[in-house]
Amino acid sequence: MNTIKKNRGPLVVFFLFFFTGLIFSVAYTKVETQYYFNSFYHPASSAVFKFITHLAEGWFTVPLLIFLFVYNWRKGLYIGLAYGIASLLVAVLKRFVFANFKRPHGLKQLIEDENYNWLKDVEMPSNLSFPSGHTTVAFCIFFSLALIIPNKKVGTILVVIAVLIGFSRTYLSYHFLMDLVAGSFLGVATALGMYLILKKKLKL
Questions:
Q1: What is the tens place of the pLDDT at every residue in 8-57?
Q2: 0.70 cut: is pTM over it?
Q3: For the chain, what is the radius of gyration of the CA atoms?
Q4: Residue 31 lies in a domain
Q5: Domain, as residue range, for 45
Q6: Confidence at residue 99, expressed as pLDDT on a 0 to 100 scale
Q7: 203 is a domain residue
Q8: 4-20 in b/e burial notation, b at 16+ Cβ within 10 A?
Q9: CA-CA distances (angstroms) from residue 144 to 33, 52, 87, 165?
Q10: Spatial distance between the Cα atoms of 181 and 132, rounded to a whole number of angstroms
Q11: H and E: helices and strands count for the chain
Q12: Peptide linkage before 63 cis (omega within 30 of 0)
């Protein structure tokens, strides 16, 4: 309970993203939601999101984990384990649980719509895309950092970054919104669960 109280800021940001995304996903179809976000397309914001979306990839996450291990091996081990478990869960869910989960016919509609703003070299996968791996990793790592950083204002900002990474996936048309909602929940649940398990053992 004390952990929840200390991390109200990061949790509020996560829940705002999660429930807003969930409401949109329930109230509208995937395609309707995708068209809505695509209506805000702008070359400048697309360039920013194209950079932000890659913050959940190995070129950034691996050096970050190495730095954490050198700086504080206990905290580095915690985040490394949370990251590994979250990545494993995503792989299992994509390849086994939702392996036959095909995109709705709306994906074809988006592809054939000449007015839809597709970015160059961006292709929304037709399967193995639920939940969003980038979103899961982003929320897992940045929420984990928020939990172990004493300054919770900084922790809140870190979760905002995770939100931006997650949102970039649908803004850039890599994923539908529900993929992000599921990924954010999985990432935070893994980060928080591992923290509660390892808090005393690793003296986090």
A1: 999 999 999 999 999 999 999 988 999 999 999 998 999 999 999 999 99
A2: yes
A3: 17
A4: yes
A5: 2-198
A6: 72
A7: no
A8: eeebebbbebbeebbee
A9: 29, 19, 14, 15
A10: 8
A11: 10, 0
A12: no
Outline where 53-132 has alpha helix (H). Answer: 58-71, 73-92, 106-112
Q: How far is CA 63 from CA 45, 70, 80, 124, 143, in A?
A: 27, 11, 11, 28, 17
> What is the spatial distance between Cα 140 and Cα 180, in angstroms, rounded to a whole number?
13
Q: Is residue 204 part of a domain?
A: no
Give the number of domains in the chain. 1
36 located within any domain? yes
Q: What's the pLDDT tens digit per position in 163-176?
A: 999 999 999 988 99
- Kind and range of the H or E run holding 46: helix 43-52
SS3 content of the chain, % helix, strand, coil (to 5): 75, 0, 25
Instruction: Decide if pLDDT at 131 tops 80.
Output: yes
Helix 177-198 to helix 8-27 angle (10° resolution) is: 150
Identify the pLDDT of residue 186.
97
Structure tokens belonging to residue 45: 């914001």
85-130 pLDDT, tens per residue?
A: 999 999 999 888 887 766 655 677 787 788 888 877 777 766 778 8
Lowest mean pLDDT among 40-49, 61-70, 124-133, 155-164: 124-133
What is the rounded CA–CA span in Å between residue 151 and residue 155? 6
Q: Are residues 180 and 169 in contact, defined by beta-carbon separation less than 8 angstroms?
A: yes
Q: Which amino acid is at 54?
A: H
